[in-house]
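Next comes this protein:
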Amino acid sequence: MPSKRSAAFRGSSALFGFVLVCLPTQAQQSKIRTLNEQELVDMMMGGSIQASRSSNTPSSVNRVKQALAEGKKFRMIALEDVPDDWTVVSPGGVGGGGAWQYVRIRTTEQNLPRVPNGNVLAAETLSKYTGKKIDAVIRSEADGATIEAMLLAADLGVPVVDGCMVGRARPEIQQQLPTVLGIPASPAAYVSRWGDTIILAHAVDDYRVEDIARALAVGSAGIVSGVDTMISGRDVKRSLVPGALTQAILLGRSAREAVEQHRDPIEAILKIMHGYRLFHGVVAEDDTKGDRGFTWSVATLEGVNEDQGHTYKIWNKNENIVAWYDGKVDATAPDTLMDLDPKTGDAHNGPTLGAFQVGAEIEMVGWAADPRWRQPKGIEVFGPRHFGFDFDYVPIEELQKARKNPAVN
């Protein structure tokens, strides 16, 4: 096995050429484990459960199974085992509603060919620009970013780190723990679905990274692939939510086994998260629009069973941000506010990103954010005032205590 210091190049794609990738030493390899199919399937479901928005778990499961059938290997390394001198990156898609419609029309008429893997091209571009070898991949957020991180790591032949920059899903790039801790997201590389490639060499701050990446998405039919937050192993150990992927596996497995054993999957999930049952209802209204690269929605649920006669309202910017129980604030970001299918425990699968399906029966649940999100900088970038509300963040446990709604333990 070549040493980590070897000038090793591994082909990432016949189309995209080469990306600088370090081969781990024998000692490092011993700390990296290969995930099996069931673990990966459970991880896809668990990543959706962590998300804080409607999700499409079957799509992620199909993608990971297809990759396994193609012979790809998915490996993971614990956060504490990442060497200090490794370089890690985070892939993901940026986008939402409100894209320039004329771009969609024109590119369709042009019949422009699409690149098969924008994240690989973005990683290759960022690696070449910085001259840094990529040793591992980190998940930017929950839900679809889980499969994106796993696939990029498999394509590069490197492990994914068992952690997450957020712990849930978030609508804006600067809403990640590295930003809160002063670690910049730039330089970054972005790739459109047709292969336009852009290097963001430097940004004034991560708010500007968000502005620029979102503008690229709006001008690129709604989405761009991106690789950003290129940081050292030393910094990654202090700036991720640890064990997030192991937790995703546990959540997916626990919900699956609960259904198989005719137990309540919501109860199984909340015991793991020490979370709260917030509301059980049916979606009565959903007002969704796309604007400025985001999907915005306001959904109203009418209560059933124990919540009969009550209402629940959720305000969503790609993700669930604020909820009200009978008109009173009940939970807000950065805590997780999640819509689940009461029969399966899986994330509710809405018609589009963040939207709610009218008529769907949903169990709204929530749990506390990582303590670092509750520091002043975390609340500044991810609390309700950031989204334009005129009230302060209150931890979910305090809101639920006032409502006399205990956590599930």
Q: What stands out?
A: Residues 275-402 form one domain. The chain has 13 helices and 18 strands. Residues 31 and 77 are 6 Å apart (CA to CA).
